[in-house]
Amino acid sequence: MTAIDDPVDATLIDRILGEYHEMPGLALTIDQAQRLWGCDAATARRVVDVLVARGVLQWSRDGRVISR
Asked: How far apart are the C-alpha atoms of 22 and 7, rounded to whole Å?
């Protein structure tokens, strides 16, 4: 099972999408994302993987998660 196949909390996804919508230019490392979203590192990575796969977020050259 890959991270993309793991179930992800829809409420958390909606909250993250809202944060990126409300704060254009938001660029977070996984550690920053984990703290902002109040979740563990595995959950933060799984959510990012799902949103990257959906084409909503992407990785910047310096390793930050940014909106597309």
From this structure: 25
